[in-house]
Amino acid sequence: MRVLSITKHLREQNWVAVFLDFLIVVVGVYMGLQMQEWSSKRAQNAEAAAYHERLAYEYAALSDMLKKHSEHYETYLRNGINLTALLLTEQEIDQGRANQLMNTSLFSIPPLKDPAVLDEMISAGKMGFIADPAQRTQLLNARYSLQFLGTYYEFLNDGLDQILPIVQRCTVIDEVQPLAENADIPEDLVTFHYDFTCMQSEPLMPALMSEWLQRLHGTRNLYIEANLEFERIAKKLQDLANKSCLLYTSPSPR
């Protein structure tokens, strides 16, 4: 209709009306483009806010898991130290205490998986939503930290592989209870005990346990450092998510 109006005013050579019609068209197009741009930015801000929120949640959860793992390794390390001290003593070993320490020291925990949301952003080419290059680098470095912890898991298992054959040689099977037909399977399938006198007689056991303690100590420290790093990242990501949410909910231009 506006085009017809302009044509009519041109025929009538009503230049003031032509100018007003043209101005209305230009302003209308401009406002339409502005609204389209605002809508597009709003959609991008909404997507960015969703990613930031998911990242913050994921890194907070990873931080909690790293803290729990570091606490477990703290327990393994303390119990391993006490077990090694018992094996090196010349006095009679308290079997109950030694059994408890044995069952709570020679363990390794599978490493955590890479941050799934970050991997999704990398594969989808969405890393631009993290505007600060330093923060992008921090996220990637934290991802590599988890992968490095995976190598320490293998490092721990190598140490265990050297100790466990001695433990197996010094393990005595007491009994295996037969089961009646359709009977419930008990939790303790086999009753056994460790012969700590046998372990004391193994010349390599003290050296292997000492090396195991060093590996545990290094792993514990790495998990503590990683936990602190992930805590800082999770806090920054939550702040970023809050800012993105404000952008997403901002009113439309007038």
Radius of gyration, whole Å:
33 Å
What is the tally of helical segments?
A: 7
Order of helices and strands: HHHHHEEHH
SS elements, strand count? 2
What global shape is seen? elongated
Structural overview:
- The chain has 254 residues and is mostly helical.
- It is 74% helix and 4% strand.
- The protein has a two-stranded antiparallel sheet with strand order 1-2.
How would you summarize this macromolecular structure in one to three sentences?
The protein is mainly alpha-helical and 254 residues long.
Map the helices and strands:
Blueprint: H1 2-11, H2 15-88, H3 95-102, H4 116-124, H5 133-169, E1 171-175, E2 191-194, H6 196-201, H7 205-248
Antiparallel strand pairs: 1-2
Helix pairs in contact: 1-2, 2-4, 2-7, 5-7
Key terms for this structure?
single chain, 254 residues, mainly alpha, two-stranded antiparallel sheet, 4% strand
